Every structure is written in C-alpha cells, then in structure tokens.
C-alpha cells in the first residue's frame, strides 16, 4: 500500500491556502507582500497555512500566555496573538530592530499590539533571564537553528503542563535525510528531531507542513 499523503502541486497548494478561516485577512496579506519584497530574506516568513494552523492551535488549547523566539517582520506573531484572548500576552524575542520595526507597524494595524511584549536581544540570553514565575501555554521557535536545542531546554521549565511547543523548519528542505549533512543547521535539527521523538518530557509529532513543523506537548509527569 502506498503512503497516504497528497503530492502538492502549486494549484493544490493554492487551494489549501484559500480554504481557511483567516485566508482573507487583509493585514496579513499586506504584511506578506511587504516582506516578500525584501528579497531572498523573505524565505524566513512562515507559510500562510502554517500561520492559520497556529492561530487555531493557540485558541484550541485556550492559551493565555505565549512566547516566540524569532519574530522577523511579525507575521507569525500576529497569527499567535489572534488566537489569544483579549487579555492574552505574547512575548516576542528577536535580535533585529529593522525587521521588528516592520512588525510593530503591522501589530498596530492588526489590533494586537497591546498583547505583545517585544524584547530585543539574543534568544539564549533572553530566555536565561526569564523569571521562574514567567510561564507559557504556547511557544513557537523559529530562529537560529543551531540553538534550537538550547531554546528547548531553557523554555521547557517555563512551559505549563500540557502546553505546546512548535519548532519550524524541521525538515530543512529534505536535507535531514542526508546521512552526513555538511550544514551545521541540518545536523542540529536532525539531532533535535531524534531527541524530541524519544524525550520522555514531551509528546511530539513532526508534520510535513511548510518546511516541517514539530509540535510538542509537555507531559504531565508524576
């Protein structure tokens, strides 16, 4: 029996993107267009369906507090914030002032700026500075790939039981299949894929969404 999955064509992918509740959000559409105009760096932008999926997940788990490592121009932050309640809070961590200045403009337009606390600086340093009482229901990691495992270990003590952690780019365009990848980013994510699949602290699934999206649930341990 053949594996059960749909082989995406550009036409089928367009169909997927246009059949979601937030598919026609004008602020997200304008932000995507401005980000894509930046050139090759726009590859850091998450996909449309990934953003819609994240909004749904945040709302489905009734998250009230979220954190994002790697904000870029703010598209994913809007998607997360839209899933939070009015009193919800999202902490965003990023090193780039220029990109996040674009994000701030669109957060205002999307009506979610009041939910977002942007902290500029190195992700590892900022996570290490979190206070013990700072806890989260949802986390999205989409920054320096080599540091993903460090982000995970620093974040996990601040995640509530049954909270979700999402990791982007976990397939690296299929390069994770290479037996001995030369790219340190690929090696780091392949190692993390193996770790998360067997880590007793979390339950995880790797989905073929965009460039690979791993979803982890923090287990309730005795």
Provide a compact summary of the structure.
The protein is α/β, with parallel strands linked by helices and 222 residues long. Helix content is 38%, strand content 20%.
Provide an overview of this structure.
By secondary structure, the protein is α/β, with parallel strands linked by helices. The protein has a single domain, classed as Rossmann fold, CATH 3.40.50.150. The chain is 38% helix and 20% strand. It is built from eight helices and seven strands; from the N terminus they run αααβαβαβαβαβαββ. It has a seven-stranded mixed beta sheet with strand order 3-2-1-4-5-7-6, sandwiched between helices. β1, α4 and β2 form a beta-alpha-beta unit. α3 (48-60) packs parallel to α4. It is globular, with a radius of gyration of 17 Å. The model has no long low-confidence stretch (mean pLDDT 94).
Order of strands across the widest beta sheet?
A: 3-2-1-4-5-7-6
How far the N terminus sits from the C terminus, by CA atoms, comes to 40 Å
- The CATH architecture comes to 3-Layer(aba) Sandwich
Q: Which fold name fills CATH's third level, the topology? A: Rossmann fold
Mean pLDDT: 94
* Envelope shape: globular
């Amino acid at each position: 029996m053949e594996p059960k999955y749909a082989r995406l064509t550009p036409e089928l992918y367009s169909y997927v993107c246009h059949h979601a509740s937030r598919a026609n959000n004008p602020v997200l559409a304008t932000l995507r267009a401005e980000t894509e105009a930046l050139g090759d760096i726009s590859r850091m932008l998450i996909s449309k369906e990934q953003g819609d999926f994240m909004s749904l997940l945040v709302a489905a788990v009734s998250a009230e507090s979220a954190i994002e490592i790697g904000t870029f121009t703010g598209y994913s932050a809007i998607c997360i914030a839209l899933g939070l309640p009015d009193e919800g809070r999202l902490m965003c961590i990023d090193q780039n002032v220029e990109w996040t200045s674009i994000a701030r403009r669109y957060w205002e337009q999307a009506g979610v700026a009041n939910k977002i606390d942007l902290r500029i600086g190195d992700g590892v340093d900022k996570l290490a500075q979190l206070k013990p009482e700072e806890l989260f229901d949802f986390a999205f990691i989409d920054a320096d790939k080599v540091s993903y495992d460090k982000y995970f270990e620093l974040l996990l003590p601040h995640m509530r039981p049954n909270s979700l952690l999402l990791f982007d780019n976990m397939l690296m365009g299929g390069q994770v299949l290479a037996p001995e990848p030369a790219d340190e980013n690929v090696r780091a994510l392949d190692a993390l894929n193996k770790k998360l699949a067997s880590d007793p602290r979390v339950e995880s699934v790797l989905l073929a969404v965009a460039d690979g999206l791993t979803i982890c649930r923090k287990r309730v341990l005795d």
